[in-house]
Amino acid sequence: MKSSLLLQRISARLGLTALSLAALAGCAPLTPNLDAQFGDSVNLLKAQQVIDVRASADTRVVRLDAAAAREAIVLYHQSFRAPTPPPGVITIGVAGGQ
To answer: Is the pTM of this model over 0.70?
Structure first.
């Protein structure tokens, strides 16, 4: 009777130890090389989208004469009133009848 109780206690302790070790193994970092490079691809893509890195340091003012500025605003507003219709699906690759 004592030996079976002793075996039960030992097996319970071994099972608990194995379960604890398995739980601790789940917390260990398994990908240190990937973690070191985490976010590099996003930062690279953001950097590739910047046209001029020194744009904020450029203090020159772009000036338009009044007629050119007025025409730009009029064309901008007209683009919202009557936008160009999208071409039909069937006309893809067709030169438009020219």
So the answer is: no
3-state DSSP assignment of residue 98: coil
DSSP string, the chain: -HHHHHHHHHHHHHHHHHHHHHHHHHHS-S-HHHHHTTTHHHHHHHHHT-S-TTGGG--PPP---HHHHHHHHHHHHHHHHSPPPPPPSTTTT-----
Give tens-digit pLDDT for 21-52: 888 777 777 777 777 888 898 999 988 888 88
35 neighbors 29 (Cβ within 8 angstroms): yes
92 pLDDT band (50/70/90 cuts)? low
The confidence score (pLDDT) of residue 1 equals: 65
